[in-house]
Amino acid sequence: MAKKWLTGILFAAGFIVIAGCGQKEENETLAEVEQNQQQQDNETQEDKEEQQDFHQGSDKEDADGFDENLGQPGDDSSSSDLIVYQWEEITISIPDIWEGKYQIEEGEDGFSLIQSASAKKEEGMGFLCGFYRTDRMITDLPAAAALAYGNGLLYYMEQPTDVCYFTEDAEIAKEYHEMQEWINDIAATVSIDKEGIKYNPEEFVCPLSDTVPLKDDELLNLSDNQLAIARNEIYARHGRKFKDSNLASYFESCSWYEGSISPEEFDEAVLNQTEKDNLEVIKNAEKAYAQEHANPEE
User: Fold this and answer.
1) Which of 201, 210, 243, 289 would bridge 146 by S-S if both were Cys, CB 3.0 to 4.6 A apart?
2) Neighbours of 227 (CB within 10 A)
3) Which residues pair with 102 in a beta bridge?
4) Can you name the residues that pair with 154 across neighbouring β-strands?
5) What CA dihedral angle connects 267, 272, 277 and 281, to 10 degrees?
6) Which CATH number, 1.10.3720.10, 1.10.287.1080, 1.20.58.1690, 3.90.1750.10, labels domain 204-292?
7) Rounded to two decimals, what is the model's pTM?
8) What is the pLDDT of residue 41?
């Protein structure tokens, strides 16, 4: 009887153990299923987010109208590389998206950037801009902008004043206008490989009046205000102060000006002969202007 009782207990215990193991395996299986399901749900959500991001990116590109990998004018964060070109002491950087679209024509005083497509269609067409040097005034060049000066030379950029692209092809015209949008960015990269170069010519009417003789015809397009400034900037270079409030305010706004000498103490002996001669040329231009204009500017 005892032996049968013991056998029954062992049998019951074994059944419980087997049942427990089966329950454990079932729990582990359920956990694995739930884990796999959660992983699938996460992957599905990630796929949805990636698709959403893709469509949002496509919409943004369409809205902006350009591929952000190509960059755009004025965008310093652009991934577009630059093509460095040097002509004697003048160096510029050209965006690499111009590759195959432009050519360069060199001359004695500088070089020009030309749209190749227009130049191939018609000789002399495609002028985008040019970078040059001169020892003269550029007041007779309406589309010229001074960029730097020094050592008796003025460096400037000139742009076209008339239609310079092949107008009979819409694609060529579109490309030309897109290239034109980069011109100011290219001009901002200009550097001159010479000592003594300054990059603030816009703060002068006559940047070279201390070293280069002026000519009467170079002053014909200047107003009476510009002539007055041109005359007084010769004195201002040497630190002369001004009683006239307008002149004083104007020169104080110039980065190069350091007024330190009162008008009463200023000695014109500090002027070199070129400056003295240029003063006379400017004074004569002012007299001629006053005679030709009944109501000069104030």
Assistant:
1) 201
2) 22
3) 115
4) 134, 149
5) -70
6) 1.20.58.1690
7) 0.73
8) 53
**Strand order of the sheet with strand 90-95?**
82-87, 90-95, 191-192
Cα angle vertex 86, ends 83, 91, to 5°? Answer: 85
In 127-265, the DSSP E strands lie at: 127-134, 144-150, 153-158, 191-192
Output 273-279 pairs: Cβ under 8 A, ≥24 positions apart.
274/209, 274/210, 274/211, 274/212, 274/213, 275/209, 275/210, 275/234, 277/213, 277/214, 278/206, 278/209, 278/213, 278/214, 278/234, 279/231, 279/234
How far is 112 from 102, CA to CA, in rounded Å? 10
Q: Please write the tens of the pLDDT for every residue from 31-51.
A: 444 455 555 555 545 544 444
Here the tokens at position 175 are: 């490309």
Q: What's the DSSP call for residue 256?
A: T
Q: What are the tens digits of pLDDT across the range 147-170?
A: 999 999 999 999 999 999 999 999
Distance CA 75, CA 83 (A): 16
**Which pLDDT value is given to residue 81?**
86
For residues 17, 22, 23, 26, the Cα torsion angle rounded to the nearest 10 degrees is: 160
Look at residue 129 in the predicted model and tell me its pLDDT.
Answer: 98
**Token duo for residue 269:** 């002996």
In contact, 201 and 209? CB cutoff 8 Å: no
Give start-end residues of each CATH 1.20.58.1690 domain in the chain. Answer: 204-292
